[in-house]
Amino acid sequence: MSLRFVTRSVHAYLDYPVAIALMTLPFLLGLGQSNPLALWLSVVTGVAAFVLTVLTDHHLGIWRVLPYKFHLAVDLIVGITFLCAPSVLGFSGLDAAFYWLNGAAVVLVISLSAPEQEVPA
User: Fold this and answer.
1) CA 41, CA 93: separation in Å to the nearest integer?
2) What pTM value is reported for the model?
3) Which of 13, 14, 68, 81 holds its CA 20 to 30 A away from the CA of 54?
């Protein structure tokens, strides 16, 4: 059994709640104590993630214009950015923990994503 079990369908179901969480949790948790960017980086990323999901070619995409592989690449960049943000932007405490946990979760989901099966023509 492969450890890469996050299918395109599973990923699609995760996308919308994650985007909404990235937009709302910073306010609920009071992020931004160490740097105001700790609040706004997540909110802006959440809005971008929502738009990316709407435009991705999977069954929950509304306008399916972006390839799923592109979506995964953007997610990986976001995960790495979130892992680096506390060091680069001077986040500490809860601000840093939020970005480290979210960055690690995103990178983990990408690493567990199943390769797409080629569909015969």
Assistant:
1) 16
2) 0.91
3) 81
